[in-house]
Amino acid sequence: MFREEYVEIKVLVTYSKLTGQPRVDREIIIDELRKYDYRTLLIVAAHLLNTANITDNCKRPYNLFLRANGVKYNETFLFNNVLICKQGIYYLAKWALIYSDNLSDDYLRIDPTMLNNILHLICMLNDYLPNEEVEALSYIYKNMKFNSKRFVYNEILRSFYIYTEIATDIELFEDNEYIDFNNDFVVKYSYTIKEYLASVFNLYTLHSTLAKESVFGNDIDNLLKNVKNPDVMRTIISDYIGNRNEYTDWAQDTLDNSWNYVKFMEKPLFSLTDNRFLSLSEELISNLIFEGLYHKIRHIYPDDDTRIIAFLGRPFELYISELCKEAACNSDLEHIDEFIYGDNNEKSSDSYIISGGKLVIIEAKAIRPHFSALIENSDDSLFKQVRRLYIKPINQAINAYNNINATTFKSFFSEVTDIYIISVTLESIQPFNDIISFASRELDDSLAIRGFFNMNVEEFEALCSLMNSDYDIYNILDDYMESGIPFANYLYSEGIYSERLDFLIDTFNKVTEEIRTISFSRDDNDCT
Asked: CA angle, corner 143, sides to 142 and 144, nearest 5?
């Protein structure tokens, strides 16, 4: 129903903290990097990112390595903290693409001694990750965002449903707003959105099921040998394969910003040879499913085309309403969909969930935090996104509710005593106590609100599953409002779990069958 991972905060092992010595000079690190083929370092990075419990498993051999090399260090500190983290591994990849120049035909040979030397390099590079003069709230947000994982199966069903079902049902939209981007997509790229999603999902599945093998690279011909339309999948995959020259200028320009990995998201597959590529991590591939598709659709149209930006939000809003309907249908909750009210034909919020005197207002926005909040060391950048994702949508919902209560539609809410408002966005701002305090100061105070939230779409899917079960969602929202932690952490800490909505399960089953049909002939998968 919901991703099992939850966020923990731990101390990162750096060379200076481990040894009590100053951090190692950059030139010494660069000299060490020059001993390696950059492809070897990328393969090690992929191995570290894709092996379960690797950070704990690496500590013992690294401990023996330090002893053997006569390094004076704090062994207790090493074993009680984190030796490697995702950010540090991506950081190694960035440095490797710039400085590792010992190209070798033997780049696949990686022995334990070499692995320990590379772990030592990572430990030294950890000292160059930001640890001083950082703005605390921004730093915590970036760490939590960077280390969150997507629940890929929801991503793929959501992408199919929003972009190929809702978005193609012209009757759901007003005549002057509809854009047939599915057709425009084919004209632009010569393949369909469904073919794109099937190909990326197959790539993700290959990576996650063959992680140990795939860290040494995938032969593209071997990958495509059983695919129904290999030329289409080759075209799609090739768009995301980058050679070293495509990364080096960017890596050099952003080396001192250890949060900027935008090029890895744009080109998540690294070319090893003419026919062999490396997928560094499953997160980078999963990013192509929903986020990557959004950008491919957006790039069909001119940068100044505001119509497509507005329209891309509409299928998302309808998806959120569909979730609310499904959540309410098998429970004692009443769902009210968006409606027109007033003399000026104004629109209400996207959905309302009512039970007795309790009301949940849902305002859906197909937006996400700007990338600046992730790469800039600034609480101000973060608070700008809080206003966009959190405060502005909730104030919009408050304004609509107040206006509705000045019309005959006020009868909808005549028994309401407690109000909760949820801004649902593609990605959310996690509810640190400082964020909640900031939002409460800037919210419209014309309406007494019991709880206010910004949830990402995956969190809201989880909440809808809880609505459809025996859980009291109002108690959950009350407790969550006071928790000051991400929704996944809250559910985990409280032992709250519910099966996904039947609607989501049925949609996923339909999507996987469609992916199989697009990708393979029935004979290829016939087990009889």
From this structure: 90
Altogether, the residues listed in the chain come to a count of 528
391 to 192, 363, 400, 435: CA distances (angstroms)? 37, 11, 14, 10
Q: In this structure, which long-range contacts are made by residues 510-516, counting pairs with CB atoms below 8 Å and at least 24 apart in sequence?
A: 511/156, 511/157, 511/160, 511/161, 514/160, 514/194, 514/198, 515/156, 515/197, 515/198, 515/201, 515/202
Beta pairing class for 351-355 and 358-365: antiparallel
Residue 295 pLDDT exceeds 70: yes
Q: Is 524 helix (H, G, I), strand (E, B) or coil?
A: helix
Measure the N-to-C terminal CA separation of the chain; round to a whole number of Å: 32
| Confidence band of 216 (pLDDT split at 50, 70, 90) | low
Q: Name the β-bridge partners of 452.
A: 421
Query: Do residues 98 and 252 make contact, with C-beta atoms less than 8 angstroms apart?
Result: yes
523, burial (CB in 10 Å: exposed 0-12, middle 13-18, buried 19+): exposed
The DSSP call for residue 413 is: G
Report how far residue 503's alpha carbon sits from residue 166's, in angstroms, rounded to the nearest whole number: 14
Helix axes 193-209, 502-519, angle to 10 degrees: 90
Q: Which of 23-27, 356-360, 362-366, 517-521 has the lowest mean pLDDT?
A: 517-521
- Mean pLDDT score of the chain: 88
Predicted TM-score of the model (pTM):
0.89
Residue 400's nearest CA partner among 438, 440, 351 is: 351
Are the beta carbons of 96 and 33 closer than 8 angstroms? yes
